[in-house]
Amino acid sequence: MEKLANCRKFGGYPHENAALFIADFESYATLHNISPLDDNRIIAALHLHLTGPALTWFNSLSSENKASWEAIVHLFNDKYVDLDWQNPTVMLDSEIFENMSLSSGQSIDDFYCQLVEKANTLKKPDHEIAGNHRDSPSALAAAKMGEAYGYRKAELQVAAASKQAKPSDKRDSEFASLQSQIDTLTKAVQNLTASKTDESTKQNRRTDRFAYSLQQATNPPQATNSRQQATYLPQATNNLCFNCSSPNHIKRYCNWNGQGVSSSDITCQLCDQNGHSAVNCERLSGN
């Protein structure tokens, strides 16, 4: 038989109107000569018009419940038409409906559609949708009239916007005090770390100098001739001379007379020490 009309499918979602669907489906069945007394045929037609959670619900029914159209309609009404106000979904939809308000920049027609959709789901009477108006169409007309006269101007929206709460002075002072304490502790830790590093460096230098002196006293170098004895200079490769700030010798054996320029790049031609030239060598003045 040629299909005369279509019937929209039902998914069982909260925004869908279950009562309207079952009424449309019964009209669809009548139009296609599907008798309510023919249980198998009308139940099969309903099965083809269910999707999503509603189809899952139908498939979970027992064979006994699926054998009678009256039983199917009764279970469908219990599930989707008769509201259970203790159901979390219904409670959430009711709370959303009670707190719906026109957003800035939102079209009144769009807001009206959302409001009516929630009201139909919750089976709200028309006067709850319309507020103080007699019906919802007159409420929509009044709202559009107000919009036409410019009550939703930008400057009014700014004036009506809620002000952000400023933190109290006490909270600011407590935060500033905590920040000051944190800064003080940070500086103290940095100073303590720096002082420990300096002390460790000085201690290492004293230890190296003591070890070098002890080594020289215990194992003096052997010279093969008088010139080697005269020109031999102990070297400390790990320390700088405190007199000329040059490597490979210490202040005790430094031959710089304190005059002229001292640089680690200069090598004396008389004593082979780094840090001074032959002109500023004590050996030159001694000769």
UniProtKB/TrEMBL annotation:
InterPro entries reported in the protein's UniProt record: Retrotrans_gag_dom, Znf_CCHC_sf
UniProt-listed Pfam families: Retrotrans_gag
Residue ranges annotated for the Retrotransposon gag domain, each copy included: 47-83
GO MF terms held by the record: nucleic acid binding; zinc ion binding
Protein name as catalogued: Retrotransposon gag domain-containing protein
Origin species: Mytilus coruscus (Sea mussel)
